[in-house]
Structures are given as C-alpha cells and as structure tokens.
Amino acid sequence: MNAADSNITHLLRDDGSPSGVFIERVELDRSKFLGGSDSAAVMGLSPWATPVELWQQKTGRKPRVEPDAAAKARYARGHALEPFIRDMVIAKLRDEMGCEVELIACNARYRDPEHPFLSCEIDFELRITGTVLIGDDLVHFQDEHINADAKSVSGFARKKWGEVDTEDVPIEYAAQFMFGLMLTGRRYCLVAALRSFDDVDIFWTVRDDETIAAMRPKLVSFWVDHVLADVPPDPMVFDDIKALFPLDNGQAVEANERIAGMVERLRGVKSQLKSLESTEESLTFEIGLFISPNAVLTYQGQVIATWKAQSSRGIDEKALKAERPEVAAEFTKTSTFRVLRLPKGSTR
C-alpha cells in the first residue's frame, strides 16, 4: 500500500466473507488502478475512451484530457447535486414505496482483495427492507446492504435511459455498476437518476455472476498483460491505429487478396460519397435560393427547413500573424499525422 492508502479498514460482506478494502476518500492517482468507469473502456463499451486510449492514459503516454470550463461546471454541479439526489431517493423509498432505509456510507472506496489494482468508489450505500419492482419482478429486501449511485441526467443523455424501475441504463454505466457489485460482493445497485428537480427516477443493476465472470479476467488481463507489460491492446477503431503508429517507416508491404479487396471496396465507397456530396451541394443550393432572403420554409403549414442567421466567434489567424507575429508563433505547434490515400488508377 502507498501513503495515499493510510487509514484502512477491512470490511466483511453481508455473509461474513472477506470483502474489498474500504479506504477513506482521498485523491488517488488514477494511473495506478482500474476504476468503475475504466471497466467500461476495457470492455469496449465506453463512449469516452477505447482500450488503446485507456492504456495510453494508464501508461502515461497520453494524459487524461482536462475538461473544458463548461464540462468542469457540469461535473461540479453533478457533484454538488449528489447529496440532494441521495436525500430525494431515500425519501422516495421510504415515503412512496414503504421501505425501511438506512444510509450506511458515502463515497467508500473498495479494492479487490486478490487484485488491488481493481478499485471503485461507491457513491452511497443503503440498508433496505421492503419490496420494490425491478422490471417485471417484485424483489423483497430484508435488511439488505446495497450499492447506490447518483446521476444527474439532462439534455440528449435522457434518450439513453429506458423505463424507470428497470435495468435499462446506458451500457457504459451498467458496466461501472456491475464492477462495483463485483468488488463489494453485493446483489443490487440502485441508480438514482435526477432528470428534473421535481422527482428522481430509480433504476437498477442486478448482479449477474456470468457477466462478472467474463469481466474479471479481461480486467486483470488488461492491467497485467497491457499496462504492466507495456504492451498495447488490439486497436478497435482507426483512431487507435493512428495513435499507435503516428509515424510510418517508409517501407512498402504487399497486400493479400482480402486487404486488396477491401481497398477496392473503400474506393467504391469514397466514389459514392463524392457523388452524394455533389448531390447534397446541388440540393442545398436550390433550396437556399428558394428560401432567400427568408428564414423559414414551410409546406402545407408545417416548417420543413430553416435558414437563420447565427453568429460565432473565432480568432482571425491571418490578422494575428500580421499584427502580432510573435504571439502567433508562440502558440503555433507542428503536428504529425498520417492520411490513408488511394492513388488514382491503382485498381486491380
């Protein structure tokens, strides 16, 4: 254990068996462990990072992207709302659903006793007695200790959540919650989703031992065979390949029939896209000409297109270089990139 792991208390699961390790909330170096959100990336389910990108972060090749001011504000609001969401869901469980609820802990951190590099923080933990609906099943809790997570859901993110009182949560969150159930040994994770300030929606993740049995070796392998061994995982998307091979070696490689066929298919796709782009440009011109100088196009009383003036702000690079060349030079950086090109006339 390192210095950041001081003040440790070992916990037991509800059945008395050894559980993870509870650690008081501290600022931890995320390059030293795999957390709940990391588990989704390892499984290839994260919208924020591929396995290759996560490997780059954990090995120090690519620093974690610092959120912009707007994102930081959202995170801060989400963190500030956690106690509010927690209190709302406890009140809902007690007053509307007739359950007995006790708040056990907040922001406890657990480590896997066998693989301490697997670690997660649970937003809050409840002890619950009562009956709740999860999907089509009535589940009876009797003094049961459960994980709980608070989420503030807004904007387009709402579309990724399904019916309340079900397990229909975004897949990346489901992986995170299952990871927490794996480390705590519990059966249920309650998800309190704040979608308005009038009410909080309840979702669930139910422990699935088959899923955990599939996740666990992949997580261990990612850490041992890739992070510790300093070997990248297999790329999943083209950006992964570009990240792993930013520079070429100047050599040629002979294609096999399969790859040569893919090149021809790609050539055909690019040709179709070019034709579609030309059609798009032509249609846009005709429609724009018809609308001008108006802002809205209607058909049978319904709005079918708009063309409204809007403004944006940006730096005039040409003027900056002319007026303040030293500033422009200071903030100009050179980047190296590779482009996959298909030479004309090189068909099979």
Describe, in plain words, how this protein is organized in 3D:
This protein is an alpha+beta fold and 348 residues long. It has helices at residues 36-42, 51-58, 69-96, 171-184, 209-228, 238-244, 257-291, 317-323, 325-330, and strands spanning 8-12, 18-23, 100-111, 119-134, 137-152, 188-196, 199-206, 296-299, 302-306. Helix 4 links the parallel strand 5 and strand 6 (188-196). The chain contains nine helices and nine strands. The strands form three sheets. It has a five-stranded mixed sheet. Strands 1-2 form a two-stranded antiparallel ribbon. Strands 8-9 form a two-stranded antiparallel sheet. Helix 1 (36-42) packs across helix 4. It has two domains: 3-228, Lambda Exonuclease, Chain A (Alpha-Beta Complex); 253-308 and 338-343, no CATH class. The model is unreliable at 1-14 and 16-27 (pLDDT under 50).
Secondary-structure blueprint:
Layout: E1 8-12, E2 18-23, H1 36-42, H2 51-58, H3 69-96, E3 100-111, E4 119-134, E5 137-152, H4 171-184, E6 188-196, E7 199-206, H5 209-228, H6 238-244, H7 257-291, E8 296-299, E9 302-306, H8 317-323, H9 325-330
Parallel strand pairs: 5-6
Antiparallel strand pairs: 1-2, 3-4, 4-5, 6-7, 8-9
Cα(first) to Cα(last) distance is: 60 Å
How would you classify the helix and strand content by structural class? alpha+beta
Q: How would you sum up the major sheet?
A: 5 strands, mixed
When the domains are counted, the total is 2
Low-confidence stretches: 1-14, 16-27
Q: Specify the number of helices.
A: 9
Portion of residues within helices: 25-40%
Note the overall shape: globular
Oligomer: single chain
Just name the CATH architecture of the largest domain.
Alpha-Beta Complex
Kindly provide the radius of gyration, computed on alpha-carbon positions and rounded to a whole number of angstroms. 26 Å
Proportion of beta-strand residues:
15-25%
On the 0-100 scale, what is the average pLDDT?
84
Q: Which CATH first-tier class of the largest domain would you pick?
A: Alpha Beta
Write down how many β-strands occur, each being a DSSP E stretch of 2 or more residues: 9
What is the H/E order?
EEHHHEEEHEEHHHEEHH
Main sheet: strand order? 3-4-5-6-7
CATH topology of the largest domain: Lambda Exonuclease, Chain A
